[in-house]
Amino acid sequence: MIEWSPRAITTASRFLSDKPGLTAMVEAVDALAADPYPAQSFRWGDTRRLRAGPYRVMYVIEGGRITIDRVDRVFD
Length: 76
What we know:
Helix content is 28%, strand content 39%.
């Protein structure tokens, strides 16, 4: 089960004009249901970080629940 925290919804909503980037991010988040530990993610304190297109997704795994905590834009 994947849930979005209010903070994640707020941070992700800043990027609504970036349809291709948000699509890549949402697809990566949806894939967490099948594999919450993908190779491109890594532990960062009590959370995990996942790079999805131009975004960084911070999430927490608690039992069978994955909570998306924050979405940030990554500038290379």
